[in-house]
Amino acid sequence: MKPVKLGLIGVGTVGASTALVLKNNAQEIARRAGRSIEIVHASRKSISKGMPEGTEDIKLSSDPFEVVNDPEVDIVIELIGGYDPARDLVLKAIENGKQVVTANKALIAIHGNQIFAAAQAKGVNVAFEAAVAGGIPIIKSIREGLSANHIQWLAGIINGTSNFILTEMRDKGREFEDVLREAQALGYAEADPTFDVEGIDAAHKLCILASLAFGIPLQFDAVYTEGIGNISTEDVIYAGQLGYRIKHLGIARRTEEGIEMRVHPTLIPEKQLIANVEGVMNAVLVMADKLGPSLYYGAGAGADPTASAVVADIIDVARTITTDPQNRVPHLAFQADQIADIPVLPVTQISTAYYLRMRVDDIPGVMADITRIMGESDISIEAILQKEPESGAPQATIIMLTQKIRELHMDKAIEKIRGLDTVHGEIHRIRVETLGSS
User: Fold this and answer.
1) How confident is the prediction along the chain (438 residues), in pLDDT tens digits per residue?
2) 409: enclosing H helix or E strand
3) Which residues pair with 299 in a beta bridge?
4) What is the CATH number of the domain that holds 14?
5) In what order do the strands lie in the sheet with 75-78?
6) Does residue 343 lie in a domain region?
7) Has 205 been annotated as catalytic?
């Protein structure tokens, strides 16, 4: 059987590793795919940098459209990231009848509906396992391994940079800005870390996971997104005293009213396995009606882990090139005509528990006023910590854990508490999820 020929767009960290995996593991890959797989054409901006050692014989161009339009190429591998020109390149590859493999979560989250419709019409595959959680096969697990189940909810640590920062803050008592600088020095965070620490990267990935889990269109703009920049070391300490850890989670849940999609800092019980995922590692916890909970853990980024997922997609696509397109695994897990337009709930309509931290005057009656407002709002208090003021200081810190309540009601209660003359500064709020814990 003739070899499957690849065109590689992007020879950066992941692209170079992908080329080397295909070269060094060629025999094992051929055994799995049933035919040999080889890169015949690649492109990179700085053509003078060449290809990785051992792959110098691959044709190299500076114009990625030369790869997309190369008639010898069967599968286009897009590893340049971002929206443009990645979108145009992928659509052109599809127009040319080529299969596509991409690691580009932003592209899939924003333009995936258009891309998959084009691929469906042309009868080609677009594979994107490496777009979510690096080398963890979470997309394949949801799309194929759990296909007998109704997925009820999923929650994931899907950005390693944020997880590294929160881990360092808890383990070493360091401040956010200090750890962020180290993350940048170590290469975990970009010079502009906005996508990581503000939750945008995680929201791209959650959008994809929710679509796969619930059979809904990709709707990135509907994901509620909140970063970790307002988390303080004292929040991390107080959470620990209450038996919780703070993690930056992406949460998608099916409810009777609609779908929740949200990314935000979250208190979770420290006994949960996912609470103990540390450093730059990723993990996704999935609750399915027949299997129950299952946890998928591993390296969420890095050259080799991501290349592992990219090459796995290449093998899958190579196996199905000659398959009737109607009998392939659907791009978004459900048949294209079965994607349901289930409403996505605004964050005000979600129900969860809350951690609140506030500074109050150290005088009698303050707690009574706060608990009265909570009671009037039908909010039950689970636990209270009161930190005595430093010697001579006029204010004390109060930490409260509430039971589950709709966010809209919590918003109104916080606004009333903020209006008390005895409460000072911002009322810090972090959502709490037990994730199936009793």
Assistant:
1) 899 999 999 999 999 999 999 999 999 999 999 999 999 999 999 898 999 999 999 999 999 999 999 999 999 999 999 999 999 999 999 999 999 999 999 999 999 999 999 999 999 999 999 999 999 999 999 999 999 999 999 999 999 999 999 999 999 999 999 999 999 999 898 899 999 999 999 999 999 999 999 999 999 999 999 999 999 999 999 999 999 999 999 999 999 999 999 999 999 999 999 999 999 999 999 999 999 999 999 999 889 999 999 999 999 999 998 777 777 888 888 888 899 989 999 999 999 999 999 999 989 999 999 999 999 999 999 999 988 777 667 899 999 999 999 999 999 999 999 999 999 999 999 999 999 864
2) helix 407-418
3) 281
4) 3.40.50.720
5) 59-61, 37-43, 4-9, 75-78, 99-102, 126-127
6) no
7) yes
The answer to whether 304 and 15 have CB atoms below 8 angstroms apart is no
User: Measured between alpha carbons, how far is 219 from 217 in angstroms, rounded to an integer?
Assistant: 6
- How many domains does one find in the chain? 3
Residues 333 and 224 in one domain: no
Length of the chain: 438
Amino acid identity of residue 86, one-letter, is: A
The answer to whether 53 and 74 have CB atoms below 8 angstroms apart is: no
- CA 121/CA 267 separation, integer angstroms: 44
DSSP 380-396: -EEEEEEEPPPTT-SEE
Residue 153: CATH number of its domain: 3.30.360.10
Whether residue 289 lies inside any domain: the answer is: yes
Whether 212 and 296 have beta carbons less than 8 Å apart is answered as no
Q: Give me 334's structure tokens.
A: 């459900």
In a shared domain, residues 52 and 115:
yes
Asked whether the beta carbons of 15 and 79 are under 8 A apart, the reply is yes
What ranges make up the beta strands (E) of 79-215? 99-102, 126-127, 151-157
CA Rg, the chain, in Å?
A: 24
- Between strands 423-432 and 259-269, the pairing is parallel
| Assigned token pair, 379 | 């909010």
Taking the C-alpha atoms of residue 415 and residue 409, their distance in angstroms, rounded to an integer, is: 10
> Residue 156 is encoded by which pair of tokens?
């994931």
Among residues 45, 205, 290, 412, the one annotated as catalytic is: 205
Out of 288, 316, 338, a domain closes at: 338
Asked if 83 and 50 sit in the same domain, the reply is: yes
Q: How far apart are CA 357 and CA 401, in angstroms?
A: 9
| C-alpha span between 267 and 243 (Å, rounded) | 9
334: containing domain: 4-137+303-338
Q: Which residues contact 237 (CB under 8 A, 6 or more apart)?
A: 173
Which tokens in the block code for residue 211?
A: 């679509």
Assessment of whether the complete model's pTM goes beyond 0.90: yes
